[in-house]
Amino acid sequence: MNTRENFEGLKWQGTERLWKNRVGKNWVAKRILGRGGQGIVGHWSYEGPDRAMKAVKDVVVKQSVAVGPLGNRRLGLSREARALQYFEDSGSPHIIKMYRHLYEEQGNYCMSLDEGTVHRMFMEYCPGGDLFNWFQTKRHKDENITELEMWAVFHCLARGALVMHIGSEDTSRLRWQRNIVHFDVKHANILLGSRTTDDEHIDMPVFKFGDFGLAVDVPPVQGSKYQKEYQWYGTVPFYAPEQRRKYSVDDDIWRPWIKPSGNLLKSFDYGSHTNVWQIGLVMWCLKHRLNYPKWPTRSSKAHIELIQSTLSHRLKTGGLTLGMGDDIDEEKHGCHSKYSKGLNALIKECLLIQPPSRPSPESLVVRTKRGLEMCHRRVGTPLHPVPTSHIPQNLPSSRWFSKDLRHMISTTPEPQRTLPLSDLIHRVEDMKLQGERKDRRMRVQKRRSWAARLNLGGNFSPKHQVVASIQRFPNPFSSSADSSRMRDLEPIIPPGLLAAGAVAGAAAGAAAGVAADIGAGIGEGIGVGLGMVKDRLHAGLEAGAHRLAEALNPPGPERSDEWQDLPQQTKGKGKAPEVSKWPLHEEALVPLPVLYCIVKNFGIFGQVKHTHVKLIGLYKGTTIIQLKARLMKEGVTIPLNRMRIMCGVKVLNDNDTLAALNGQTTIRVEKE
Hints:
By secondary structure, this protein is of the alpha+beta class.
């Protein structure tokens, strides 16, 4: 952006006081983030005296012309606003958020992008810039992108692709009846959000998809006419194979899958596989330190060609994929690679030419998370489940766009689909390739390493193995314990421990002065969990927690004088916040393991000290508790404003009150 364009941008920000829907009082224009032929983007920051109390302190305003001064209609921002509104209820941190709705009003004619009727959007501010600038900074410093950084970027993009595929990052939820294709996935459209405290983004920002101006909800059945309509959507070097049927003189780029005898593709349908291919191309460029893929042209030799890879079963049976000379040398000649075999194989699987052969978004999330966990284990920071929190959208302006787009959102999602059969077959075949002997050898080696850390020497009894397992994994009851951890625990639990667990649970309940059925509930959870360690551990603990909650929360009167008010958010404009009444019962001290069972997916097991819980009761099947706790992590007290990310809950007010409503466990946290 040259000096003239920057001056015009600052002049545009100065006209904010003339807008019909202003950013708001005490909001100060900071700088122009970008400008193109279709729109301009600016950054505003709140500098009022109560800045610390604001949930949203920075906002981005994006503007584009909808109807020109001569009456010629343009696309504006309606397509992007519609796409972002689809993701409004997903709660995903890997999709950029839009605050409120789209605004339409007359421009102030301060520049060409402010003439006629303009569209204006208020969006989430990403302080880290975009992936292109992040990559350029590393190139200028002559720094390599580490394996951990590659997996972190890959996993964030996989989660974003899953949201576009099923409408949420939670695969247990019902999927929606949409199939969003971004069409413009590239370095500049991947934004870097703020750093968080969750384990999946340790020392790394959150990478999220932005610029949905070309996003389309594609139908399941597509004809040739429909496919040709979107063959020019996106950026030329990042076109997917299904967008290129034949060579075009307009872009002068030869695609290796287009041969003189015809196109190698068997299907040209658009879908989630299109997003997966562009994500793979971005990761491939990061691996080879490229700003964009260098396709062969009339004046240059071929840098990219089709290769037959053998790194995985999917690559062996899925056909041809993209590669360069370095990829061929690494695979065929055994040359050293900077990255692991698993990462290289997954990138190549995403770049398979045939769309049906590419991994699904669900499979991509599972495999990138597995790779990210392996990297974290090497540095001693194992991962835990990451709860998603819905950031409050309290923008100063309360006016909504008159042309409401909510009626276009599907409210009847279809049932959740399981992984495709092809993915399951590939997964089984990949495990067979590893071999049972290698798997057994790795498990023995892992146990010996645990014994070496504990200085057990030759005294290697099952008791010591259990101690080693608990010290290696402080929370074996967490849902983040994957199949490998369960497999390591399975052969080292003696049968007598099952009965001992039930007896110990009942004895602990009786010693605490609680009813016997509480101890039976704990014993049931321990017995069921330890009896079926591999698949039913978490389910067993939930069963014990359910019986425990029923015993500790007797049904109270429908109304009494001992009621406590908890604020509850409401939707809609002009409505006062409603107050829900909850029955209040006596205080009770609850042990830490029991607290973990009650507060499902609390996410901070092993980091709580001096816990005091007030059980308030049951409301519509939801356990309501009041929690007073001191949270410790690495010896430092965690502030309450950081707890909401770890607990996955909303901040309802400024009195250190946290709550997760809508059928989830409601928690009130107070300072100790």
